[in-house]
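Curious: why these numbers?
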Amino acid sequence: MRSLLLLFPICVAGFLAAPQPCSAEVRTWSSPHGQYTLQAEEIAFNDKLVVLKKSDGSLVAVSLSELSEADREYIAAKDKGNTDNPEEMQTWTTDEGLKIRGRVEAYGRREVTIQRRLGKLYVADQLFSTISPLQQKVILRVISKLEGVQLTDEKALLNWASALTARGKTYNLEGVKMQLESGDEISIPFFMFTPEEMAILKPGWEAWVAQHKDQEAAEQESFLMASQAHAYQQDRAQRQQIQMLKLNLLATNAGIIDIWEVELRPRGYGRTIRVAVPASDSRAASYIALRQHPGYVVGPIRKMNL
């Protein structure tokens, strides 16, 4: 894979592989012992999570370890049969109408310095003239937006940079990494997307920032964002944010036959969680769910039909 200038480096570890897009097939998913079942189609998966789309269009992410052996085997078979397909690429539009064909993969942030040295322009220590035309357009748009000037080409940017000190000027950029059809990678700040598309990409950003020191948690947010982007591109009317579905408490069932689905909403940043809880009544279910997830408040509760 060719590597373009990345405005911000993003760790892509084994957990944060690009979400594997899946064919639309509605099937029954269940907890290991069958107490909880769900009719849904898979939207994406990696080695830890699967994102499911329910019949009402809502999206939930479930840990593979909390699903039945049959479900895990189903995903494993999907993974082995997966091959890259150009049709998996998506078309994204910048606020100025530039169309970019690529697949959103992860969040990222970085300080980027613009400098003029001996009459030449450098961006993050890379010679501007050696950067791909698309990345040049991104850089020109970034500086134009942040500085409130109109920079349309390298000459205009070089003239603007002539007023900078020898140390140049540094910008803090936040956004997403994309893989293009060519195999190149490019990074796009949030503010370059249209408001509609930024509404899809940015909601998980605050949680990513809050958890960036926890690599696995941060990578999970990037995966969920990429999965959300995939679902949105498949259906532009799909703008619901992914919720986490927790089934691990079902293993504590000690003869209690009632299963409750408790919705927990974060007090601060984070995603809404749905927790399946074995309990005698809704009050007990709320207590158990909150005990495992402090920092949340209880939302709607419903009794599952078994």
